[in-house]
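Re: How this chain folds, sequence and tokenised backbone to follow
How to read it: Take the token row as a discrete description of the fold.
Start of record: The labelled sequence and token lines come straight after this line.
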Amino acid sequence: MTKNFLVSNVIDSMDEKSKGTILKSMAIFTAIELCGSILNGKTGKRTTAENFLTFCKSKYMPEKYYGISELLYSIFRCGVAHSYISKGAALLSSGSCDEERHLRFYENGLFIYVPGLAVDVSKAIRLLYEDIKQDNYNLKKNYNIVMVQLDKDGKKEFDNFVKKYKIEKINETIKRDIVTDIL
């Protein structure tokens, strides 16, 4: 049985069984950006900051993220996304003994307990998904706009690459594992 894209692909990538603090961090901020794009109804170049901040400050996320969302974006998201490691003042940990330190400010930076962040973001995504299914706030329309845009952008990149390198395509259409329909 196919589960919804947001649940089976996005949330599952943040599950506590996932290995690696950095990889889990990447899944988390990517999920935040995707959900922000659904709220804003736009995706693409120069939308990541706005989308990230929109979701962090939305009714779906706990209020403790509202005031620090810009900091999370600049030292956590941008560091991991561009350099595969958080910037110096983002103190990431997955150690269970560090749970109580989550989102506290220390001399050397903001402590981020990654499993705690994953739980908060996963809960927020589930709430967003419920609103999408009920079509609250035109979210279903925005969701479809984002998915269509991503498909269109990807197809354009693929077609340009195939044309540029004169690649002969196999005359067959196949399915992928990720299904983005609202279920």
The mean pLDDT is 90. Residues 5-164 form one domain.
